[in-house]
């Protein structure tokens, strides 16, 4: 079995709008680490109702709940591989931003050959 190195992390972000579902697309040679979920701009007097961010693959999982004026940001550490056909759904009234990094995997042998060529 080949060893893998991580190379070239790339910033990733998605905006979820109220009652929307998005497909999370990850390159086949990479994985995604979701790190933060937060509200964007809220109206002056937002309703104090929960906004639930749901992960959907074969089942549904609650990733986090945000509440205006109470819990407006949540740090998370969720890894998603390209084999996971993940969708995200926002059940709530206000847009939410989800951020993380995409990390590309490179086989160690290829990485070692590349390093030797540079020397």
Can you put this structure into words, describing what you see?
The chain has 119 residues and is mainly beta. It has a single domain, classed as Sandwich (Jelly Rolls), CATH 2.60.120. Helices cover 9% and strands 54% of the residues. It has one helix at 108-118, and strands at residues 4-16, 21-23, 30-39, 51-56, 60-66, 73-80, 87-91, 96-107. A four-stranded antiparallel sheet has the order 1-8-3-6. Strands 2-7-4-5 form a four-stranded antiparallel sheet, with no helix packed on it. The longest helix has 11 residues, at 108-118. The radius of gyration is 18 Å and the shape is elongated. The protein starts with a strand and ends with a helix.
Question: What key phrases describe this protein's structure?
Answer:
four-stranded antiparallel sheet, Jelly Rolls, mainly beta, single chain
Summarize the structure.
This protein is mainly β.
Task: Tell me the layout of helices and strands.
Elements: E1 4-16, E2 21-23, E3 30-39, E4 51-56, E5 60-66, E6 73-80, E7 87-91, E8 96-107, H1 108-118
Antiparallel strand pairs: 1-8, 2-7, 3-6, 3-8, 4-5, 4-7
Shape label: elongated
Total count of helical runs of at least 4 residues: 1
Measured distance between first and last alpha carbons: 27 Å
Sequence of strands across the biggest β-sheet: 1-8-3-6
In CATH, what is the class? Mainly Beta
């Amino acid at each position: 079995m080949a060893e893998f190195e991580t190379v070239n992390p790339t910033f990733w972000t998605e905006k979820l709008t109220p009652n929307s579902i998005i497909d999370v697309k990850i390159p086949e040679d990479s994985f995604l680490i979701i790190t933060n979920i937060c509200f964007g701009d809220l109206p002056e007097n937002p309703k104090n109702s929960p906004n639930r961010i749901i992960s959907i693959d074969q089942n549904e999982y609650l990733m986090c709940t945000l509440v205006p004026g109470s819990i407006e940001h949540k740090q998370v550490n969720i890894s998603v591989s390209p084999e996971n056909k993940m969708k995200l759904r926002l059940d709530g009234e206000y847009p939410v931003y989800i951020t993380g990094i995409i990390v590309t995997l490179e086989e160690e042998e290829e990485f070692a050959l590349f390093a030797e060529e540079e020397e």
